[in-house]
Design a protein that fits this description.
By secondary structure, this protein is α/β, with parallel strands linked by helices. The chain has helices at 18-30, 42-49, 84-88, 90-104, 114-127, 144-153, 179-191, 200-209, 256-268, 290-298, 315-321, 339-345, 360-364, 378-392, 399-407, 412-427, and strands at residues 2-6, 34-40, 64-68, 132-137, 157-161, 167-168, 173-174, 194-197, 217-219, 243-247, 276-280, 304-308, 324-328, 350-353, 370-373.
């Protein structure tokens, strides 16, 4: 079977959705299918969005990757390439550009990719007919390819909505002005085999909004990748001075000040003097926040170490050095986080602070070595960090093994593989 997989973000892009796309295509070729990926050009990832070159080596060599150039437009980093109108009248240029883009596709910044990726799909169809299209968003311009292929050639398709095109997962309400997108989504749902969502609350919202398509709306959760993390090889020690670690982008939503204040309070409250707090991740998606940078610099004297951006291919090294994992994620009942799945794979204690309704708690509730608080005050962080340290010192037989077993339920291949196999069976 020839499967066309449309993923604007694909290795070496280092966005969080990359790993789901990578795992999907690797699974499909491992099952004997011919897979072609349509993705954005390398230049945009390397010079604008951010790349992790180590990820390219994780693409199965049997996967054909077709890279379609993507014009930065709004995010063009080279000022000399800006049109004169943008330089002279930046706000007017922006409004005019958005208006032009909305006539192509209702998604700012990405709409200009539509004619290029559709043309590429046409060429592929002429070379060798496509039997199934799978498209993953965001961005949602990816969804135009299956829509076109279905209309022109009758090709069945599956949509993988990793976030939500029309729903603000932080407020639980549709995005203002998203009426057009909701009409597109209704049309896309009408023609697809299935549409996947990453957690039950998001799927439930769409079920209530589109009840006539309830047989097509499916939860396919995220998970952790055995190709990046082998829990049995991470090592588990009883540390005299534990190493605490946060892994992920250090963005504006991370309560960095409260974490560091709580860390200082925990040190004053009996945490061993040699304990260390490490943060693995870049400051922001592309450029760092100056205030966060200054905060990290000021915390060096408190044994806080910023490890910088960390390649995914070396993520097991980071987990091997950490004794207690730190979890924090903004949002509520519709937000899960991809990192929580990786954390529960390790068998190590997790100390975190998230809201009481946060969907990450649903995952963490199935893991025995977790210590959570709410409110994100320094005192709350102090308490969960101390609890994590006590857990790291636990020598009870089987404590690590039980945690690893619990985390095994969230292996990505055990979640994503059956979903992919199910839709393949429907078209063969």
């Amino acid at each position: 079977m020839h499967i066309l997989y449309v993923a604007w973000g694909f290795p070496p892009h280092r966005g969080p959705g990359t790993y789901r796309a990578l795992a999907s295509v690797n699974h499909l070729v491992a099952q004997g299918h011919d897979v072609t990926v349509l993705t954005a050009g390398l230049d945009y990832f390397r010079f604008v969005a951010g790349s992790d070159e180590s990820l390219i080596q994780r693409i199965d060599p049997r996967v054909r990757v077709v890279r379609i150039p993507f014009a930065p437009v709004h995010r063009e980093p080279v000022i000399n390439r800006w049109p004169q109108r943008r330089a002279e009248f930046p706000r007017l240029w922006r409004d005019e550009t958005i208006e032009r883009e909305r006539k192509i596709f209702p998604e700012n910044q990405y709409a200009s990719w539509r004619p290029r990726v559709e043309a590429a799909a046409y060429r592929l169809q002429r070379e060798r007919p496509v039997d199934l299209v799978i498209a993953t968003g965001n961005p949602y311009v990816d969804f135009v390819v299956p829509m076109m292929m279905s209309a022109e050639f009758g090709t069945p398709y599956v949509l993988d909505d990793r976030d939500s095109w029309v729903l603000n997962v932080y407020t639980g309400e549709p995005y203002p002005g998203s009426d057009v997108q909701q009409e597109w989504l209704d049309h896309l749902l009408d023609g697809c085999l299935e549409m996947w969502f990453v957690n039950p609350p998001i799927a439930d919202w769409h079920l209530s909004r589109y009840p006539s398509h309830r047989d097509k709306i499916v939860v396919v959760e995220n998970g952790w990748d055995i190709s990046f993390i082998d829990p049995a090889s991470l090592g588990h020690r009883v540390p005299a001075a534990p190493v605490f670690g946060f892994l992920g982008t250090i963005n504006e939503g991370l309560p960095l000040q409260q974490i560091i204040d709580g860390w200082r309070a925990a040190r004053r409250s009996g945490l061993p003097s040699g304990s260390q707090l490490r943060l693995y991740g870049g400051l922001g998606h592309v450029r760092g926040s100056r205030s966060q940078e200054l905060l990290l610099q000021s915390a060096v004297r408190d044994n806080v170490v910023h490890m910088g951006r960390w390649p995914k291919a070396r993520i097991d090294e980071a987990y091997r050095e950490i004794d207690v994992l730190i979890f924090a994620k903004e949002g509520g009942r519709m937000v899960t986080s991809g990192k929580v799945y990786e954390y529960v794979a390790t068998g190590k204690p997790i100390a975190g602070v998230v809201e009481a309704e946060h969907d990450a708690r649903r995952v963490l509730a199935q893991y025995p070595r977790v210590h959570l608080g709410t409110g994100s005050s320094a005192e709350t962080w102090r308490d969960v960090l101390l609890a994590g340290a006590r857990d790291a010192a636990d020598t009870t037989p089987g404590v690590v093994e039980r945690a690893i077993e619990a985390g095994g339920a969230f292996r990505r291949d055990r979640i994503l593989g059956p979903a992919l196999d199910r839709v393949i069976a429907r078209v063969t």
